[in-house]
Amino acid sequence: MIIDRLVKKETCLAVIGLGYVGLPIALEFARKIKVVGFDINESRVELMKKNIDPSGELESKDFEGCDIEFTCKPEDLKKVTFFIVAVPTPIDEFNLPDLKPLLGASKTVGSVLKKGDYVVFESTVYPGCTEEDCVPILEKLSGLKAVQDFKLGYSPERINPGDKEHTLSKIIKVVSGCDEESSAQIAQVYELVVKAGVHKASSIKVAEAAKIIENTQRDLNIALMNELSMICHKLGINTFEVLEAAGTKWNFLKFTPGLVGGHCIGVDPYYLTHKAKQLGYNPNVILSGRHINDSMGQYIAKNTVQMLIKAGKVINASKVLVMGATFKENVEDIRNSKVVDIIRELKEYSLQVDVVDPYASPEEFEHEYGISMCKEASQGYDAIVLAVMHRDYQQLGQEYFSKLAGTNPIFVDIKGILRNKLSGFTYWSL
């Protein structure tokens, strides 16, 4: 049994892709069994060899006591029997699935795959992708047949960047296999590290679909709140006051409006809609929600400009401070940050826009988006946009923001955190 050989350290497990998802998984397993951590980025591998997480999520102590070998050399994977693929699955400029990292990882694994090995994919994909897109590559490069010569599985990742409470071991893990034997073996392997237990899906497609609808459901609920905020704005009432009142009912779902970026909620629904269209079905509700959420940056910028005009400001002479640039609070990750949409739209109106963020790398931000960040805020701002509520901003109040502001200033509080806490500003939130 594969589980016995792993526990006895007669063989080892590999994690392919050591980003936000892969590295925590690799280290968790490495406290129990021998692990090879593989990533194609050599500079990231060198940092991990020094107990440094390139993503900034884990601390040096999290590497301690781990039996792990970090490498970027495919030949080091030849000794591996159990492979976990945890590479990114982004979308392209046309909102279509970009499978290049996933197919590349499949080629890497296929080149070293042996009879009796296990391959489990964790990357978020559309239902059918594992068996229809990845398996043919594995079979072609290895000369082996899936199910017959090697086993296959899918176990969707549930890592939440910046979340120190809902960690890998505390979240029920959905697992699946290509047959009953593989399902049972894969479940046992994950049970080594997942204290919350596992849920065995009946098939790989079911597990793939379960992952994709988790984030699609959240996306749609947030889209509903965003649309509600637009209606409330036209009604002249505060959305968050409405939600507080509605939230007193026992079965009201407590979602709030906001920017939906990142590499999960803002991306995963497009994998589902892509597959649905291939099957001849147009997913109107999902696509409508995506359209609403993808347009929120422009909506916020437009309202900011309208308030500046009403305040008598000369637009091309006005200064705006945008606080927060990452895709969510308390992380360094700038991928698919919808704050960028706000910044670009404001710049389209010829406004001077300063951007600050205590977590984001200015170099990475400029490389990714062509937008320069400031080391610190200055003064005399006509508008302040609190875009991402980092913990560093939570203690800031009236005195701090008043020092930054010019005369008759605007305050845009996207998440409504400072409602009824500021004076001297024209205040607006979603």
Distance between the termini: 55 Å
Read across the widest sheet, the strand sequence of neighbours is 3-2-1-4-5-6
CATH fold-level label of the largest domain:
Rossmann fold
- Nearest-integer average pLDDT: 96
- Helix share of residues? 25-40%
CATH architecture of the largest domain: 3-Layer(aba) Sandwich
Q: How many helical elements? A: 14
In short:
The chain has 430 residues and is an alpha/beta fold.
Features:
single chain; 430 residues; alpha/beta; Rossmann fold; 2 domains; six-stranded parallel beta sheet; five-stranded parallel beta sheet; 38% helix; elongated
Outline the structure in words.
The longest helix has 32 residues, at 204-235. α4 (100-110) runs parallel beside α5 (129-142), α7 packs across α9 (268-278) and α7 (204-235) packs across α10 (284-294). α4 links the parallel β4 and β5. The protein has a six-stranded parallel beta sheet, sandwiched between helices. The protein has a five-stranded parallel beta sheet with strand order 10-9-11-12-13. Strands 7-8 form a two-stranded parallel ribbon. It has two domains: 2-202, Rossmann fold (3-Layer(aba) Sandwich), CATH 3.40.50.720; 239-428, NAD(P)-binding Rossmann-like Domain (Rossmann fold, 3-Layer(aba) Sandwich). It has helices at 2-7, 22-30, 42-49, 100-110, 129-142, 180-191, 204-235, 239-246, 268-278, 284-294, 296-310, 339-348, 362-369, 398-404; strands spanning 12-16, 35-38, 68-71, 80-85, 118-121, 151-154, 173-175, 198-200, 319-323, 352-356, 381-386, 405-413, 426-428. It is an alpha/beta fold and 430 residues long. 38% of the residues lie in helices and 14% in strands.
